[in-house]
Amino acid sequence: MTSALTRPAEIDALSDALARTGSVRVPLSQLWPLWADAAPRLIGEATQAAALDAALRDLAARGVVELPTTAWDASTTPPLPRSITIPTSRRPVRAKEWIRFPWRHELGWIASLPTLSDTRLRELIAVNNWLARTDGGETAVVPVRYRSAEIFGDEKCLDGMARTALFGPGRLSFDLLACVRIPAPLPAVAVGTGPDILVVENSDTYWVATDTLRNTHTHRIGVVAWGCGNAFPSQVAALGIDIGGRGPVTGTVWYWGDLDPAGLTIASDAATAAAAGGLPDIKPATALWAAMAERPAQNSGTVNWLATPGRNWLGDQLWQETATIREKRGRVAQESVTADVVAAWARI
After folding, report:
1. Res 90: pLDDT
2. Among 110, 277, 298, 334, which residue is least crowded by beta carbons within 10 Å?
3. What ranges make up the beta strands (E) of 170-309?
4. Residues in CB range of 324: below 8 A, 6 or more apart
5. CA angle centred on 344, ends 340 and 345, rounded to 5°
6. Do 286 and 197 fall into the same domain?
7. How far apart are CA 277 and CA 266, in angstroms?
8. What is the pLDDT of residue 1?
9. pTM given for the model
């Protein structure tokens, strides 16, 4: 079962990378760069080692790799294997069917691949057949999962393939397959005429903020959006397409979530995604975060703040203002902040 720390596409990308090494034994020093390429979002994160451990255990459960019994590196948390074994590399080299296959000219590069799994070969043959069927026709551009369902009978297959070396310059691309990746929409509603938007983490807060700001005047908030919890970083690109039926965001994007490690990780990851996509900065709704520091800490003594997630995004002043919550090893849910505080913040 896939861990919450990892994504299926990242594990598949690591599996493909391990297969391409052609090695029976892969040391930890080689595993790290392979994992960084497979899961670049985790580079520098405190959970990177734990995610690699989860990915390796997932692959071990599938029989893709074998983990050692005793040779583990205890310098990381959790410990990681000093090396892993790839059992398929012990097997006799099978016939390289992809070298002799009559690929279309767009896929001629496949014949030069040093290795290719049976699954990937079947997928590439399906792509080859689709290209043959649509050759010379006017192929309408559709969302990625529609094309994936058409070609493979599996709407998620292209998502996994796109994370591998099969995609890239001179290889597969969404342009070649006449499809486009459209970000998941952000549930949003207009609450005013201003250019700014307020994105909140939780659904109940979305409804409270919507009702409050619809009945509050003289504020700059035009739209309230629900970030759908930890899905928000993957939906950030929607800010540049349409929010609440008003088109791309033109003002400031204010974000407000739970005052806990998960809530601040969501905010920080979303801000990073926005910067990478050339979108407006995602900024903390300062007074709302500050108001949470004045609420009683929840779950005191149980919340692990050692990784200090989101510190740079929150900023030094807010980080200091919220110190008492971290010192109590607690958290504060945004539902603890009342509607009148939301209204007062919007009027600032």
Report:
1. 75
2. 277
3. 179-180, 188-190, 196-200, 221-226, 253-256, 282-284
4. 293, 297
5. 115
6. yes
7. 16
8. 46
9. 0.61
Range of the domain at 125: 97-180
274 belongs to a structural domain = yes
* Average pLDDT along the chain: 91
Q: Would residue 1 count as lying in a domain?
A: no
Residues 6 or more apart whose Cβ sits within 8 Å of residue 97: 121
Residue 298 sits at φ, ψ, to 5 deg, of -100, 155
**Cβ burial, residue 114 (10 Å; 0-12/13-18/19+):** exposed
Q: Please give the share of the chain, as a percent, with pLDDT higher than 90.
A: 73
Residues 72 and 139 both lie in one domain: no
Q: Do residues 331 and 301 touch, judged by C-beta distance below 8 A?
A: no
> 67 and 206: one domain?
no
- What CA–CA distances, in Å, run from 322 to 248, 263, 327? 32, 14, 9
Q: How confident is the model at residue 149, as a pLDDT?
A: 96
Domain end (from 90, 108, 138): 90
Residue 130 has pLDDT above 80, yes or no: yes
